[in-house]
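Sanity check

After download, print the first record. It should look like this:
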Amino acid sequence: MNSIVYVGMDVHKESYTLCCYCYDTDKVEYKQTIPSDYKLILKYIESMRKVYGEDATFVCGYEAGCLGYSLYHQLKEHAVDCKILAPTTMAITNTNRVKTDKRDAGNIARCLAFRTYSEVYVPDDEDNSVKEYIRMRDDQKLMLKKIKQQILAFVLRHGKKYEDGKHIGQSHI
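Expected structure tokens:
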């Protein structure tokens, strides 16, 4: 029997809280809090293989937040199916107002199982290259603007005034 096990992960800078949800049992179980290291998630999944069977398929997920895409990429490199859930699109199955990491992880696992979420787009290498180029270009434009302002201030302090516009041009040279 090939069952799908949904692993909800409530991730923080210092710790991850993990739990499993499977249609067969229809309950969230095997809750565990671990230090924030993706290798411990891999160990957790391997320990769950003993519970759910070697042929079980695991789908992991966590809310978009402080970790960005780093955990996603680390798990994908180890052939773990991982999803990043948009927090505003998740169905809230916890009607109790008390919010804990274990309940959050259980809610994420249920959202994965019932597909009551929207997945966050994970940028590829080309997207990241374009983003870095745009950031670099914007930084250069800002530096150029500051240098021009410094030149105009310097020239003004020395009693020079240019009537043909405030933009730096050939007349400033």
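If your output differs, re-run the checksum step. Summary of this record's structure: The first helix runs from residue 38 to 52.
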